[in-house]
Amino acid sequence: MEPAVILSGLVGHAEEMTAVRDFCRGFSRRVRLTEAEIKAIPVLMLLRKVDVFLHFVTRYLEGTDEAHVLHDQVKLLSEDLIQLSAHTSLILEILREE
Fold this sequence. Notes:
- The structure is a single chain.
- By secondary structure, this protein is mainly α.
- The chain has one domain (2-97).
- The protein is 82% helix and 0% strand.
- It has helices at residues 2-10, 16-28, 35-61, 67-97.
- The chain is elongated, with a radius of gyration of 15 Å.
- The model has no long low-confidence stretch (mean pLDDT 93).
């Protein structure tokens, strides 16, 4: 889960693939992922994105945040899911290279 959390935070940022490659290069110096673990990374990244969204849903339901915050989070989740879908193959390729 640890690499999935970091990688999910890189999705959609400028220089995304450079950052992903740099992270994977550094991570692989300490940890070698199995093929099964590599294949799980995109699902775990999705889980992380949904987890963050659910955090904001809870804050809205508890009255901590207003509706506009939840609306912004819906938009962010939608954008992140599109980015994740578009880059999953490349992220997996980078993970396998390193």
